[in-house]
């Protein structure tokens, strides 16, 4: 099913197929910049981008699938074909719902993706990327994500990459006291700080904006302090465990800093990565990335499979509702055009009748009421038929109705029509002219 204003086309590069390096290569500088770049592409009328530590996705509304895929090369040109997944209109809508519900996350049912989706929606809307199609699609996905967490147990247990990271380090290194460093004071950094505070004696939070780091430090129930990013190497030297989750466009650490830090376990869940390649080769350093988190999240995944089945059913239900919503809106446009056309004819005939007779105010009101009643009765059956046609995907009927009742719909009239009377147009050429244009020429 598609709307007359275009189709949604999407691409996804995620942890399921892509390595950390490939995820980094696919990502734009920011979600807002990605949307602005997509809107600048030929044929794109709406755009949306979602970039997290384990996925980069882009969606556009375009006249056809091929135009959309060409625009989305912004995300695919730096990765191989086997990494990027292309999605058509309905596949894009269903995928967005699954993402919002946590069905596509490394940690099945994680809560953070829903907040990230909301932020991406606001970013896209802020730069003019959200129109009618994506408004309905993205807000429906957010609604599905909310229902999934309110009505099922999909988010019970380990609910974020940050908590999975702490569980992984605890399993591998037996956390019990000591000092931990969290780099980044965003949502993921806050979650990591909360999880670590239950396992260590002291916590250091580093962030580019120190007040943000101070806020995180104040929310945990453990001895905690805040430092600026330029003091991160000194903090590293004091810490046994590091969880890094900044949104920085460049790497936060130098390899040399790790060489002098002693035994250190590092979980890098930033995208792009905060820890440079090479740090993992140091004998005193163990680095875990997104791939390493797969093992610890498998335990949670098994616990949530039953809830996931309920969420899958919920997605199917809401997906059908969304398609019906799109269909009704398209039928409503035709119905509106039909009533507007009838209203123009009614108004013209009323004016003619009133001009030819001396009606008083009461008589005029009776005449207008009669005309309104006639229009309503005549259009009642076509209205039902058009709504039925939309429900049954009978778009030929919808298209024909638009050509009949909406003069702005369809191709522009050929240039040879301009300035001509209808009797001057050869019969053999009239079939190339939309019916609404022929009617207008006849009226003229």
TrEMBL record:
SUPFAM superfamilies: Glutamyl tRNA-reductase catalytic, N-terminal domain (SSF69742), Glutamyl tRNA-reductase dimerization domain (SSF69075), NAD(P)-binding Rossmann-fold domains (SSF51735). Substrate binds at residues 52-55, 105, 110-112, 116. The record marks 95 as: Important for activity. Residues 11-152 form the Glutamyl-tRNA reductase N-terminal domain. Residues 290-317 form a coiled coil. The active site is at 53 (nucleophile). Pathway: Porphyrin-containing compound metabolism; protoporphyrin-IX biosynthesis; 5-aminolevulinate from L-glutamyl-tRNA(Glu): step 1/2. It catalyses: (S)-4-amino-5-oxopentanoate + tRNA(Glu) + NADP(+) = L-glutamyl-tRNA(Glu) + NADPH + H(+). It comes from the Archaea. Residues 175-296 form the Quinate/shikimate 5-dehydrogenase/glutamyl-tRNA reductase domain. Residues 311-406 form the Tetrapyrrole biosynthesis glutamyl-tRNA reductase dimerisation domain. GO terms for molecular function: glutamyl-tRNA reductase activity. Keywords: Coiled coil, NADP, Oxidoreductase, Porphyrin biosynthesis, Ribonucleoprotein, Ribosomal protein. Signal peptide: none annotated. GO terms for cellular component: ribosome. Its EC number is 1.2.1.70. PROSITE patterns: GLUTR (PS00747). It is an enzyme of class 1 (oxidoreductase). Belongs to the glutamyl-tRNA reductase family. NCBIfam families: hemA. Homodimer. Possesses an unusual extended V-shaped dimeric structure with each monomer consisting of three distinct domains arranged along a curved 'spinal' alpha-helix. The N-terminal catalytic domain specifically recognizes the glutamate moiety of the substrate. The second domain is the NADPH-binding domain, and the third C-terminal domain is responsible for dimerization. Catalyzes the NADPH-dependent reduction of glutamyl-tRNA(Glu) to glutamate 1-semialdehyde (GSA). This is Glutamyl-tRNA reductase.
């Amino acid at each position: 099913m598609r709307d007359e204003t275009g189709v949604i086309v999407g691409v996804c590069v995620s942890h399921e197929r892509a390595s950390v390096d490939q995820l980094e290569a696919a990502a734009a500088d920011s979600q807002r910049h990605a949307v602005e770049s997509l809107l600048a592409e030929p044929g794109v009328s709406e755009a949306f981008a979602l970039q997290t530590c384990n996925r980069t996705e882009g969606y556009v509304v375009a006249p056809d699938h091929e135009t959309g895929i060409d625009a989305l090369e912004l995300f695919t040109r730096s990765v191989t074909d086997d990494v990027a997944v292309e999605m058509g209109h309905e596949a894009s809508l269903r995928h967005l719902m699954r993402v919002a519900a946590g069905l596509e996350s490394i940690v099945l049912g994680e809560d953070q993706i829903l907040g990230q989706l909301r932020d991406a929606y606001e970013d896209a809307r802020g730069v003019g990327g959200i129109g009618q199609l994506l408004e309905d699609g993205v807000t429906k996905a957010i609604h599905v994500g909310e229902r999934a967490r309110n009505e099922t147990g999909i988010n019970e247990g380990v609910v974020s990459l940050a908590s999975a990271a702490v569980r992984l380090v605890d399993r591998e290194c037996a956390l019990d006291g000591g000092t931990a460093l969290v780099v980044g004071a965003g949502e993921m950094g806050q979650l990591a700080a909360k999880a670590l505070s239950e396992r260590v004696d002291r916590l250091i939070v580093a962030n580019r904006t120190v007040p943000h780091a101070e806020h995180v430090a104040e929310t945990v129930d453990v001895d905690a302090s805040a430092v600026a990013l330029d003091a991160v190497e000194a903090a590293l030297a004091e810490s046994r465990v590091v969880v890094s989750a900044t949104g920085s466009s460049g790497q936060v650490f130098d390899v040399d800093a790790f060489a002098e830090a002693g035994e250190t376990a590092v979980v890098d869940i930033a995208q792009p990565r905060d820890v440079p390649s090479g740090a993992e080769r140091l004998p005193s350093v163990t680095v875990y990335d997104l791939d390493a988190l797969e093992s610890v999240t498998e335990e949670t995944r098994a616990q949530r499979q039953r809830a996931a089945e309920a969420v899958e059913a919920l997605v199917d239900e809401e997906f059908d509702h969304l398609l019906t919503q799109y269909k009704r809106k398209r039928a409503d446009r035709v119905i509106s055009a039909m009533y507007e056309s009838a209203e123009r004819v009614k108004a013209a005939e009323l004016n003619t009748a009133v001009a030819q007779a001396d009606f008083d105010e009461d008589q005029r009101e009776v005449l207008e009421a009669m005309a309104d009643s006639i229009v309503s009765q005549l259009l009642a059956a076509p209205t039902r038929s058009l709504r039925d046609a939309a429900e049954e995907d009978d778009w030929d009927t919808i298209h024909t109705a638009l050509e009949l009742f909406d003069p702005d719909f369809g191709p522009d009239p050929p240039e040879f029509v301009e300035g001509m009377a209808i009797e001057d147009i050869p019969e053999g050429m009239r079939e190339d002219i939309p019916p609404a244009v022929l009617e207008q020429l006849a009226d003229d």
